[in-house]
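User: Hi! I'm a student and our assignment asks us to look at how structure tokens line up with a sequence. Could you show me two examples?

Assistant: Happy to help. In each example below, the sequence comes first and the structure tokens follow. Example one:
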Amino acid sequence: MTGRLNGRRIAVTGAAQGIGRAIALDFAGEGADLLLIDIDPAALEATVQALREAWPARRIDAAVCDIADPAAVAQTFETAGGRFDGLVNNAGVNVFHDPLATSQEEWRRAFAINLEGAWACARAVLPAMIEQRHGVILNIASTHAFTIIPGTFPYPVVKHALLGLTRSLGLEYADRGIRVNAIAPGYVATQKVLDWWATAPDPEAARAATLELHPQGRIATPEEIARAAVFMISDECPFMTATCLTIDGGLSVQQHA
């Protein structure tokens, strides 16, 4: 840890577990004060306690919020008050279906959380960022933002849209000191992936098949995504905006027979 985020105040959504939790831990380690947002009160409290124990000098605030509710998002940031130097839109939900089997409710849920929630959070922090002429928004996208896996509809539709949001906001506010970027992870060893393997008819075969897709023979750890997030939200890439960093071990580049 090198103090790359000293003095920064950063909000992280979906912060209670997985990639969000790893990002929060790394950000605190790099000196940031944090607002952690999640819909799961118990998991959020556990993460907050872990951070406060590891980094007692940091300010760690927390808010239970459903980011699919724009009014709740606005209230959360209004209650938190003050300026934010950064925002990580990490909260998301997997919605995987055959297109014609996708209900209107599931379609709306996918967009409400993965896209509209990200925009609601960005809209909450942008005015102060514009006023201070400094700020970074980082959206956690996916390789689904530029590749398609049959049977995962409408998830890739939403992630393509999130990448569009990233590029649009990045250009809109580039001349006002705001950077907006995305990270596109491939498979990551989160609880969601572990649960997905566990529900397969043959969990070990499902795991082996996933690993075989990757040139390195493994999938990413949440910590590897977190280290990239530190770089993307720090001042180490000041000329990088409206772009996406892919972290998938070569998965999306490799053509399969």
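Example two works the same way, sequence first and then tokens:
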Amino acid sequence: MDRILKASTLSEQGRGLKRILSGFFLAPLVAVIVLYAPPFWLAVTVAIIIALALNEYVSLTATRGRFWVLPAGMLTPFLFLHEGYEHLLVFTMVVVVFTASVVSILGGRDFSPAFTDTAKAVFGIIYVGFTLSHVVLFPPLQDGRLLLLTGLLVIWANDIFAYLTGRLVGRHSLSPRISPRKTIEGAIGGVAGGVVVGLGVDGLLDTGLSTAEMAGSAVAMGVFGLVGDLFESVIKRSAGVKDSGTIIPGHGGMLDRIDSMLFSLPVFYHYLTWKL
């Protein structure tokens, strides 16, 4: 038994290191897309990521209606491209709820599962589609692309430092029932690492934020990113799986890769619009 547990621990450590290393290879590609992709193609990229993540969400939650949930989610970044997108989003949300209701009506005689599927479908579109679509709202802001890249770097740094700190000095479990391997020390180290990276990027490239604003933003992204990570763990635990998928070598599924940014990027964006 001890050998099995030891082998499992080593496997987890190797898995975590593999995620970090593969992240370094993906980062330059993401940076090029964020900094130079025209708005339409940035939206196309986001739509593809949404489709992949929503497909995993539908599988994890056993939601019927994949044929319309994925296209609805993929549509959201293109709505964000237009001026006055707020009105389009409200209209789209009404259409989504209406479509989900029709699907549940036509879904069969089991009314309880039909209602549950409706709720899960609508929530999935909001949880993945609407949140991640905030990416396309950054470029129109002053220094928006640089701020978007900075936000992503802070989120990635948070994940990396949380993992390293947790492995080195983690002693107290953060949420044993949801994610036993996450520790309070790791969470604190992740937030601190995100702040350091955010301040470093700001010092090198001048994002337009003050030291206090950047530090506060990094802390907020760290906290909301942690909530996003834990929430996705709840979804996976309810489905009885360790990863949302296997689409990205070393990272698991697409939802595993973006869970931290689903809540943190919208918070960062709305803070910037309030400040700017």
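Here is something you could point out in your write-up. The two ends are 58 Å apart (CA to CA).
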